[in-house]
Specification:
The chain is of the alpha+beta class. The chain contains 2 helices and 6 strands; from the N terminus they run E-H-E-E-E-E-E-H. Strands 1, 2, 3, 4, 5 and 6 form a 6-stranded antiparallel beta sheet that branches. Strand 3 and strand 4 (51-62) form a beta hairpin. It starts with 11 loop residues before the first strand and ends with a helix.
Length: 115
């Protein structure tokens, strides 16, 4: 599921800032290469036992990743259900309580990145 109304798409910030802010909110930078990085936040559905991930995709607009002053632009925000052995299913409907938790976390992230 693509989350279009997060208010984060197009936001530009430097690597040091997004790493610090996202980590403080529980996000982990899992995937990265020289020109893009992905930040994931895990949400557990206690009722079903399923895990869902809120994923923020970024792309470097200036500099190279791993340099603190590199500028990253948030491209897309996704949410998916974890699948075995690894991966995300973006087509499965997201339970409303999980989606609500995700939108709350996105609001926190947006506010913290804008500060």
């Amino acid at each position: 599921m693509i989350i279009d109304n997060s208010g984060l798409n197009g936001l530009v910030t430097d690597l040091a800032h997004i790493d610090e802010v996202s980590e403080s909110l529980g996000f982990v930078r899992w995937q990265w290469e020289y020109y893009r990085a992905t930040y994931d936040f895990k949400i557990e559905d206690k009722k079903s036992g399923e895990d869902y991930y809120l994923r923020i995709n970024t792309r470097v607009t200036e500099g190279k990743l791993e340099k603190p002053d590199a500028l990253l632009e948030i491209e897309h925000v996704y949410m998916g259900r974890a699948t075995f052995p690894h991966g995300l299913d973006y087509e499965t409907p997201i339970p409303q309580p999980i989606f609500n938790a995700a939108t709350d976390k996105l609001s926190e992230l947006k506010q913290a990145l804008s500060a």
